[in-house]
Structure formats: structure tokens, C-alpha cells
Amino acid sequence: MRFALSGEQEQFSRSLHDLLSGVDTDSANRSWAAGDHGPGLKIWRRLAELGVTALAVPEKYDGFGATPVDLAVGFERLGYHCVPGPWTDTVAVLPSLLDDELLTSVASGETLASVAFAPHVPYALDSDVADARLAVEKGRLRAFTPGALLSSVDGSRRLFQPVAGDDLGTALDAEHAFELGCLATAAQLLGTGRWLLDTSVAYAAQRKQYGREIGGYQAVKHLLADVATGLALAEPLLFGAAVTLDRRDVSAAKVACGDAAHLAARTGLQVHGAIGYTAEHALGLRLTRVRALVGAWGTPRFHRERVLS
Amino acid sequence: MDLDLDERTLAFRDEARAWLAANVPAEPLKSFDTAEGFAQHREWECRLADARWSVVSWPREFGGRDASLLEWVLFEEEYYAAGAPLRVNQNGIFMLAPTLFSHGTEEQQRRILPKMARSEEVWAQAWSEPEAGSDIAALRSTATRCDGGWRVSGQKTWSSRATFADRAFGLFRSDPDSVRHKGLIYLMVDLRAEGVTVRPIPQLDGEPGFAEIFFDDVFVPDQDVIGAPGEGWRVAMTTANNERGLSLRSPGRFLAAADRLVSLWHDAGRPAHTADRVADAWIGARAYQLYTLGTVTRLSDGAELGPESSVNKLFWSHLDVALHETALDILGPDAELRGAWSDGWLFSLAGPIYGGTDQIQRSIVAERLLGLPKGAR
Fold first, then answer.
1. Tens of pLDDT along A67-95?
2. A204 — contact with chain B (CB < 8 Å)?
3. Which superkingdom is the protein from (chain A) (predicted)?
């Protein structure tokens, strides 16, 4: 029993963090929301060079065949930096659905996928930029064409109504794919929550009111301490779920990471005040991302039911 | 990253499971805050000790099994899953013992630990004072140097187990000119010594789980001072982190309670109005179990328990309350009747208060983990 990340995993997380700290993901999100995928795809390619897109792809298709723990490490950092694009669909879910040459181009970062997963993922993410579009229903795969563009609470998630096309046969392992989709979403929620905490702490330590930093007031401190506690206890659930991939554990992680991120978002807004409510501030991007991800890949209700079943 | 147990650890767990299955009393013991229950618990501790299960993580020479931290956590899980009694000497075993292992002399360890392991001496903690509470550094009880030891005067209050316990440990002010954290001394006091008066205080359940202790010029020999006089605060911090952190609140206890809660909910016909809270209680208990395994790994790598202990305490104290309140809501009108769940609920209410209130813990998390500006507490 060794319940801690390995040196390689820590290093991988740091590499991702260093790379993403040097790119402007906020403006990439805004461009993405406006239908300009250019800046977002540039980030996609740079992350592909680091191996992120190859993580779950089997070695025979030039992937790493990495573990779900590695995936969780990667997705936590994608969440922290609020990277736009169909990462969950392409990197976490697709490799478990197919045993196909297509995965070689997923690993290299050339192919993006958009996956609808009935009934929990009814709308397909970023189908306009994805070349592989798959709908999963009761273990079977179908191609789909994107119908109407729907408007998400998070503008940088472009959702489409999937219009079912050809039946492509049985999915390789739809259940496994679903668990990994939930896990990747939980990891992004944890990462986003951590960004919200870090940013709110930094803001509270420099913003002054009534002649002192607001972070010196106990009322503000205690709000942030509760956020830190929620995130600290959600993390082991995420990695525990990555180790066991047990349904109950995956659902526990999804609920706890969602709750912790949601508390971080609400508290972050409260600490920032009106500035956090503006579209110019980066906080808003995360606030709406959290809300979208809380309901994606299984609602809290669905996951709590799985915990109890 | 893995959660697999090696063969040696599995064998340890199986041995514990088998012993507990064969030995845990079929009838629950009476509360250890009654005279009769206290005696029953002493007997149980003796039985545990005879089989070397009372202090598994201690060295063999003091009655333990040299168990690793992981083995200790697994033992606790088995212990509570088996429905075994609460530990009457937990103040001694989980708070004083770690302090003695870090700061005690060899003589103190040899004299005190074996009796503690068998609960021949049950320990009370004597931290709080009437004007101090969570602000331990505001304490006023004094220890004055005398020939061969110290003369202690003053008052402690809210002392858990002191009504029936044999001895107590706590901090006293050894330098009258000192302020706050300086000039304190860590002492072990015989509760039957001349000049000691113990006044039981009934807790919410009506039993005297608390007591006031009055010290009127009580002699404490030098051999019962832990660490250097004046350094008491530093010595006590080992104990505080242990109390808030790993040792006192075993994840096994919460996981066992959460599993019972899920069963209760199913048996009650899965009432929809409590479903989310039952799920969250289980999720919280599982989170705490895994968090503890992370702590075990870090400690095995040489890290020390630090302010993360406060994160820990904030979390489990709320989990414990929420878990029991959910059970009571499932029970409906019957929740009012005294029983395991209502007793557990009363017990849980103390969590957010003792060992430093929630407010103290949140300030520690904010200042020491998040680096926010220090301020008045």
C-alpha cells in the first residue's frame, strides 16, 4: 500500500503546470466560445507534444497505455488551467470505446473526438471541431452528425444535439469508458476548485478594505478554510477511485469533487465581490465551468444513487 | 499509487479480525462514564492487552506489536467494524503516550506505558481551565518549584474521564512572570494525591464524563515532569496534533458507522428525503479513510503531522455530527428514544468543540496552510 503519487506522476503534473502557466488559456476560452478554435487547438497540439493525448491510448497505437491515476493527474491540471476542448471525450473516453487505427491519430493529437453517452451525456461537446463523432447507447456505437448548436451556461463548452447516423457495432468497453469519463470530469472539477482557492487566497491577501487585507478578517479566513478542507478530502477520493475504478468510488469522487469545486466557486465569488461577477475576470470562466461539469457525466443525484445501491 | 496489502499485512488483519470475532462482548458495555461501565471497560482493556491488541503500534517491550501505522489503521477498521467498545484509556494511549515516546525519559516510559497498555492506570486529560478553553496558553494554574518537585495549585475543568481515572496530564504555569506560551510545564498528576479534589460534571447524557479538578498545593515529583520546565507548550503540541490528527479519531469508527447508516436507510425503506445525506455520509467516511491512508504514506516517508491535522479535525467532527443527525432523521419519532444512535449523536456533538474548536481549526488552516494574514482569533 502506497497511497501517494509517484515521482514521475508529480513530475508530469509539474510539466503540465509549467506549460499551461505560460499560455493564455483565458483568451483561448473566449475565442473558443466565439467559434474561433485556433488558440485552443494550439494549446491542444502543445499538450499532445507532452503526451497528454496519448495517455490512455494502447501502446500498439503509439500511446502510453497509462493508468487511470495518470489520467487523473493530467485532467486535474487541465481543470486547474481551464483548458478548452473535448479533452474528456478524446483522451479519457474514446480509447476504451474502440480498438482501431484511429487511435494513432488521437495519440498524436491530430484527431479530436466528441462523444455523446446516453443517457448521462445527452449533448455532444465541441462537435464542430471534432472529427470523430460517436454516440454510445446501451453498449453500441453510432456515428452522429451535429445538429443544432445549444448554448451552455459555460460559453466555451459548445454543445450539439447529436443526430444519430450509422451503427458502428459494439463498443469495446462502454462501462469502462463511462467510468473514465466520470473520473476525468471529477479530476477537472478538483483542479478547477484548486485554482479558485489559490486565486481567492491571493486576492484576499492583497485586497484591502477598512484599512486591512480582507484575508485578515476571520469571516473571510473561515470561508476559505472550509474550501481548503473540502478540496483536501476530495482529492483522496479521486485517486482512490482511479486506483479501484469501483463504481461506488468513482461516484463518490464525482460527487465530492463537484461539491468541493462548487463551494470553491461560490466562495471565490464572495471573496472577490463584484469584480468576480464581471465577464472580464477569469473567475467567471471557472465559475460557469464548474456548474457545467457538476452536471456532466452523471448528475450528483445519479452518482449519489450509485453510492447507495 | 496502490491500495494493495502485502501478505504480512493481510495476515495481521486476518489475525485481528479472527480475534475480535471471538472476543468482542456480545452485549454492549455500559458507558465508561459510569462507575460500573468504567470497571467493565477496564476489564475489556485487560483482555485486549493479554492478547497484545490494546496498543498494537507500540514496541513489544511495552505491550505492543511493533505494528506499522498502516497496520494500526487496519486494526482500527476491524475493531470498529466488529462493534468493539470505545477505548476508556484513549486519552492516555493516543495523547499522552505519543508525548512520552517523543519527550519522556526512559524511566518514565518503563514506569508508565506498561500500566497504560493494560489500563491498570487510566488517564484523564487536564487541558482546559475555566477562563482558557481552546486558548490553552491563557491557563493560570501554577507549578512552583520545591524540594524534589513542584507544588501545583489551581483548577482544571471539562476534564474527560477524570471522574473515575487514576491520573491526569496537563500544562501548568511554572514561571509566574511568563506570558502565553512561555513558562509552561507539562506534568503528570496522581488524582489521588493529597490536595486533589475531583468534582464530577454530568455531560449531556447525564453521566459524569467531565470533571473539574482542584489542586490545592499538590506535590508532583520531578520524575513526573515531561520535558524541560518552561518548555511545556512545545511538548504539548505533539499531543495536540495527535488529538486533532491521526490517532484519536480512527477512520474505522466513521466507516463502520457509515455502513450501519446505509443499512439503516435500506431497512427503513430507503426514505427519499434522507437519501442525499446518507450518500454524503458514506462518501465522507470513505474520503476520510483514504485521506488517512495518504497521511500514513506521508508519515512513513518521514513527514510529520502538521497543521493538516486541523483539516482533518474540521472534517471528521462535522462528518460525525452529520452522520448521526441523518440516522436520527431516518428513525423519525423513535429518534427521541435513548439508544445507540442517539447516544452516538450526543457523543458527536463534542467533536467540533474539543481539541480546539472549529473556529480555532479554521484559523489554523487559513493562516498556516493557506498563508493568510495572522489576526486576532
1. 999 999 999 999 999 999 999 999 999 99
2. yes
3. Bacteria
